[in-house]
Amino acid sequence: MTSVDVARAAGVSQSTVSLVLSGKAAGRISARTDAVVRRAAEELGYRPNAAARALRTGAARSVGLVVPDVTHPFFGKTMRGAQEAAWTAGYAVALVDVPLDRPLEAPLEALRAGPVDGFLFFSVEPPARRPGGEQVVVIEASPKGIPWVRLDTEGGTDAALAHLIELGHRRIGHLGSRVQYPTFQIRTERWRAALEGAGVEPAAELWAGSGFDFEDAARAAGALLDLAQPPTAIICDDDILAGGAYLAARARGVRIPEDLSVAGFDDLDFARVLSPPLTTVSADAERLGAVAFGALAAAIAGEPAHAGQVLPVALVVRESTAPPSR
Questions:
Q1: What CATH code is assigned to 59-150+286-311?
Q2: Cα–Cα distance between 224 and 217 in angstroms, integer?
Q3: Helix/strand/coil (H/E/C) assignment for every residue in 284-304
Q4: pLDDT tens for residues 153-198?
């Protein structure tokens, strides 16, 4: 169905249909005619052609959110926050899942054919060349020359480590991301700095890298627990990795927190369901998505962009951390 079919069914001109369905009829088209056009469009099942409208107006009213792992719960919550903000502004958000070992160009070109007005890149390096001229905002990194939004990773990691050190831990393992994107590089740097500040050498054997799934994290955490001198505490780059540490500890009869303290990052929903509940850094993923979309919408509108925005996080202490027993 086209706008010509709607015009024919309503007994009006095509330009009248365009005015009504674009929301520009106020003061120009009578309420009765407006209702007749909308009823005809509904009965015919007419839907505006988004690509054609974008060509006419120069705006697609949609953006892409590019993430490296659509199965990770934190990305889903970020997507929800971006969507809520986008809906309020009359935009839609399209999700693009691009694993870090896959080429980025093909899915972006598919969206550009749609098209979109801009992209949010979450833990994905944006392409150096953007032939579509789209606006870009980066999430969880702070590149030069591109607007960005990220969490206060330094503050959150420092708070978790300070908590463990205050409890008396000195041999603290770090279960980190195998892919060292900027946010994870920061966490490793803060781990090293905290141990050095406590007068402890951050031994290389106390760092283990993992992918973001429970089984891989359990293998990496198991390597830490099988050391001749295992850590008395493990700080994890996120709660998925912390869950893997729980699995590794359970398999070895290591009690949490009596024998091993564990701290995570993100405060995902399952953190409170773990036994014992997980001490973790709480990050508002939905707010992260909403603020990132707001920055992108401002850039699309031609408004002066913030160089970058840092959102606060907070340590939530639960039962997975306690003083070391050895």
A1: 3.40.50.2300
A2: 11
A3: CHHHHHHHHHHHHHHHHCCCC
A4: 999 999 999 999 999 999 999 999 998 788 999 999 999 999 999 9
